[in-house]
Design brief:
With about 150 residues, the protein is mostly helical. Helices cover about 55% and strands about 10% of the residues. The protein has helices at about 15-20, 25-30, 45-60, 70-75, 85-95, 100-115, 120-125, 135-140, and strands spanning about 1-5, 10-15, 35-40.
Length: about 150
């Protein structure tokens, strides 16, 4: 048995129901959809494809690996140097409510920001500094470890 998922850019993916049910949200939606298509409005096709690759691997019972995390580490290397793509993947993992995938993406995001200054993190996230000079000075004095 399979189900169809449609990305926000219109691409349709047909996947086994057991793969789709790794997502709490999709499992819930499947109750209301007989032979239709479940829209995934937060993900473009490339991101949804990556999420489905993750789910297909983790739903099956793969041959024992020397280290079960080897596959995950290799899988996440595709995001090396591409923080915006990782953020999209992380948003999708959150939307679909797939804990293992979200934990993996969040860990990779933490690696991206580790050892960066506040200014570098702001740039990475495209976030503006909306503190006044006085507010920032007070924050830096109160929380020097964060800067």
């Amino acid at each position: 048995m399979s189900i169809k998922l449609q990305s926000k850019d219109g691409e349709v993916f047909e996947v086994e129901k057991k793969v789709a049910k790794m997502s709490t949200i999709i499992a819930f939606m499947m109750e209301d959809v007989e032979d239709g298509i479940i829209p995934i409005p937060v993900a473009a096709a490339p991101t949804l494809s990556k999420a489905l690759e993750y789910c297909k691997h983790h739903v099956s019972e793969p041959k024992p690996e020397p280290d079960p995390k080897d596959w995950d580490a290799k899988f996440m290397r595709q995001f090396d140097g591409n923080f915006p793509e990782l953020v999209e993947f992380m948003k999708l993992a959150s939307y679909l409510d797939i804990k293992g995938m979200l934990d993996l993406a969040a860990s990779k995001a933490a690696d991206f920001i580790k050892d960066k200054s506040v200014e570098e993190v702001r740039e990475l996230f495209g976030s503006e500094n909306d503190y006044t000079a006085e507010e920032e000075k007070a924050l830096r004095a109160e929380f020097p470890w964060a800067f």
